[in-house]
Specification:
single chain, 251 residues, Outer Surface Protein A, domain 3, 53% helix, 10% strand, DUF2063_N_sf, DUF2063, NGO1945-like_C
Length: 251
């Protein structure tokens, strides 16, 4: 096969790929024009189904026309960078983030919702991370804790984690902290809403070798809350994290 033949074949393939993405009519040698839409519909449906599966809450928030227009714009104009299909939905989030779309004004919670839904996929699919060695017995308040490394702390402006997306309004705008982690035994993704104090506490446990008791002194000064109150509130919170296997054990 000579270079000219290869160039022609490449040009035909590119035109066909562009047509499948945009739906804009093209002439392709050796094809029947009235059959081309079937190929485009088939490819588009694969993309649409993948995105609906990744973003069921977002799909439920938008109208059918808004969703179809969003997917059409994304598929037709965005050059996907990942060769892994499961990562493609993240690029939809980036597409919405980086483009001036009317639906962002209509739905101010949209970006938070997309990111929240994506993070469930990200945590579920993330590579296994080996935890530091730990003991299974100890004291949650006074011992150094070993945390489940397969987690993210997410901050959002809207309560997309516990309120129906269509019922969220500007009145809900605030700062919400969400702990997202994967259960070691089941692989199930867990979401826990955190107060700003407990979000801070988890970050400090991750980055220091201090116990909760030691950290409570700094927290008391930083948040202007009595140390004893912090310790009392922390006990039940830490018990919950231990029972759900976010706290794996003790150093």
């Amino acid at each position: 096969m000579n270079q000219l033949t290869l160039d022609i074949a490449f040009d035909q393939e590119k035109k066909f790929a562009d047509y499948c993405r945009t739906g804009n009519f093209v002439r392709l040698k050796g094809t029947t024009p009235n059959r081309l839409p079937h190929y485009r519909k088939l490819v588009f449906n694969v993309i649409d189904d993948t995105l609906q599966t990744a973003y069921p809450l977002t799909f439920g928030l938008l109208s059918k026309n808004e969703w179809k227009e969003l997917v059409n714009d994304f598929f037709g104009t965005h050059n996907c960078q990942s060769y892994q299909v499961w990562k493609m939905p993240y690029e939809l989030y980036e597409f919405v983030l980086n483009n001036d779309l009317p639906i962002k004004e209509k739905y101010p919670q949209l970006l938070n919702l997309l990111l929240f839904e994506w993070m469930e996929i990200e945590v579920f699919m993330m590579e296994d991370i080996e935890a530091a060695p730990f003991k299974t017995t100890g004291e949650l308040i006074t011992d150094e804790l070993i945390l489940n490394p397969e987690h993210f702390l997410l901050a959002t402006e809207y309560p997309v984690h516990h309120k129906k997306a269509s019922e969220i309004s500007e009145a809900d705008k605030s700062i919400y902290y969400i702990l997202i982690f994967r259960e070691p035994q089941t692989g199930k993704v867990i979401f826990i809403e955190l107060s700003v104090l407990f979000a801070w506490l988890i970050e400090q446990i991750k980055t220091t070798a201090n116990s909760v008791y030691q950290l409570s002194k700094e927290a008391s000064e930083f948040f202007n809350i009595p140390q004893q109150q912090i310790l009392e509130n922390s006990q039940s919170f830490l018990n919950e994290l231990y029972n759900q296997q976010f706290i794996l054990g003790f150093k």
